[in-house]
Amino acid sequence: MKLKLGLPAGSLQESTVELFKSAGFNIYVSNRSYVPVVDDDELDVRLIRAQEIPRYVANGHLDAGITGKDWLLESGKKVNEVLTLCYAKQGRTSVKWVLAVPVNSKVKRTADLKGKKVATELVNVTREYFRKKKVNADVEFSWGATEAKPPDLADAVVDVTETGISLSLQRLRIIDVVLESAPVLIANGRVWQNNEKRKKIENIGILLRGALQAREKVGLKMNLPKDKFKKISAILPSLRKPTISPLTDTKWLALEVVVDEKIVRKIIPELKRAGAEGIIEYPLNKLIY
User: Torsions phi, psi of 119, nearest 5?
Assistant: First the structure.
């Protein structure tokens, strides 16, 4: 059994390969090839532009793939959406397609763009946005460098952003969010009916989600006196309950817990003051709920 899997080339390529590595799949990409090597004999991986993956999955050239929700909507193709994966080029977040105009533009709201020209790569989604807003704007396709089009070549743009910094540097002002998007794992409808391939796709999804969930968590281990247990456990949030193990010294316990990484720098000093010793923080590769 070979599962033909499309992964996004371009801006999401590096973060996608890194995510797969955390999930247990080592993918080796050559600068001269769009056919990576993967240490899984059941996978046949191709690097393809995210914009094209919905089409290739829908027509069966690929069994499954990862693309953006934006490009899936833009394509209009019917596929099985298996899983939403919240990550982007710069971290675990979604991206936004925003409607923006020059900072000195008189346009304050969407309705002000009636009869105006809007440049974007996401033409179909943008036209649907204006249709729902009942605004008759002239939406044209942009081949790239969209944020550089106003004010000479367009009155406004619909462009993708993670932080908004690039738009700000181009002296553009956001007036609305057209679409929030994240990567999605999709599968061909016929392939989804194949039990063997469906199980493989589901397995990949479970591992990818586990890798993402682990990114914001760390494990903590520590030793503590039994009589300090209540005080110390009150400091520790956990997914369920902490794991407790006896030590050879019957007056002491070993405790292990998974917590949010962002709170560790606050609680470790508190744990130390409460009587915990031998505190160890360790990273997680996967966390399966």
Answer: -100, 140
